[in-house]
Amino acid sequence: MVAISLDIGTTKICAIAVDCDTGDVLEVLSEANAFIPAGRAWEKIQDPGRIMEISEMLCGTLIRKYAPIACIGLTGQMHGILYLNRSGEAISPLYTWQDQCGNQPYMGHLSYAEYLTENSAYRMATGFGLTTCFYHTQTGQLPPEAYKLCTIQDYVAMRLVGKAEPIMHPSNAASLGLFDLPGRDFDRKTINRFGMNADLLPAVVPDHRIIGETREGIPVCVAIGDNQASFLGSAGVDRGTILINIGTGSQVSVLYDGTQAPENSQLEVRPYLEGMNMLVGSPLCGGSAYALLERFFREVIRMAGIEAESAYPYMNALLARKEQVTDPLLVSTRFSGTRHNPHERGRIENIGLDNFTPLSMMIGFLNGIAQELYDLAMPILTGAGFSTRHLVAAGNGVRKNPAMRSILSERFGLPVKVPLHREEAAFGAALFAMVNAGVFADPDEAGRLIRYV
Question: Coiled-coil annotation: which residues (predicted)?
Fold first, then answer.
């Protein structure tokens, strides 16, 4: 039997077919995601109608080729929201996790996100779905016919099974903010206190939930967040593994028994699978910092009248020479700020007459990405309650860059293991669906399909 899963990422939408017996990824299909040109520089929005079309096309292709299909799993970009009417139709764009409306000034010296944080027991940030909803509510931009809000993966799952009302797994629900972790539900009283309508929020369901069937009769599993799916697809339920994921953004994650993050840390606790939590640090740039450098190099090349589709092949070739950089540039890759200080910006320091070179910049940016993750992970690496034995690295920012893997290994002091299968989040969503559909008894059994390069 074969399982299919969808990962609705920030930059692309991916579908994979997985052999349920061997864990082999039989096929990977992907399409670019559907960004919409925004009228304001801080808006980051996408077209849910086009996303649905792409998702159905990718799933349909795999269903026709690999039928019978055991189940369909879904995951995708967390934090973002769209609004639905009573018929389950999208009546807004998808406001993604990169949207900056929450950083706009609200009251006195506070932004919308800062106001929510200072007046509740929760850390809120711009891009969190309920920060976005608060902004829309306060500015009169909430669609009058809005009946529910949800993440894009919840919307696609709902449409695949022909329903009109979404439901959410705790991993997606918590990513919107104002979420009561011990109770595994939204803090609806606090949400109403801020003037939002808590009735907009879908029901939050436990792990073991098949939400319906496609028109072909294929069971569809409730969607989970991409951070959780990536951990499941890369490390399973191993408490001795620390996972580094570098894609458009980045995360450092470990399984965690508590419900409160270590004091004075910038980590957050997120729900994982039933009865389990994760401790997560989330830099906002990650791979996009290195993409920024690639765009800079293309601009330099363009100055000479040469158009290059991508500078990455030249960057990879230069790194492959393994030339020593004796006086490295010191780079902070906080170019988009942090969740706790959105106004912070990146820096390039220690510039001398001999080290302001492309190679030094590349090594400096990679070191900066690794250092930000390491700084966030310090409470995990030094905490008495943690015993990290394995470092697993996932995402295209690691898979396509051997130098990044070497730098992470050196910085964290552990050898790096990279999953054999690509598209780790999609693979994790497939494992989650297999468990929910009864192919495996539990996540630990499903995790036996995980292999490493």
Answer: none
Q: In the CATH scheme, what is the code of domain 2-227+423-449? A: 3.30.420.40
Annotated domain spans of the chain: 2-227+423-449
Question: Could you read off the pLDDT of 12-50 as tens digits, one per residue?
Answer: 999 999 999 999 999 999 999 999 998 888 899 999 999
3-state SS, one letter per residue, for the chain: CEEEEEEECCCEEEEEEEECCCCCEEEEEEEECCEECCCCCCCCEECHHHHHHHHHHHHHHHHHHHCCEEEEEEEECCCCEEEECCCCCECCCEECCCCCHHHCEEECCEEHHHHHHHCCCCCCCCCCHHHHHHHHHHCCCCCCCCCEEECHHHHHHHHHCCCCCCEECHHHHHHCCCEECCCCEECHHHHHHCCCCHHHCCEECCCCCEEEECCCCCEEECCEEHHHHHHHHHHCCCCCEEEEEECCCEEEEEEECCCCCCCCCCCEEEECCCCCEEEEECCCCCHHHHHHHHHHHHHHHHHCCCCCCCCHHHHHHHHHCCCCCCCCCEEECCCCCCCCCCCCCCEEECCCCCCCCHHHHHHHHHHHHHHHHHHHHHHHHHCCCCCCCEEEEECHHHHCCHHHHHHHHHHHCCCEECECCCCHHHHHHHHHHHHHCCCCCCHHHHHHHCCEC
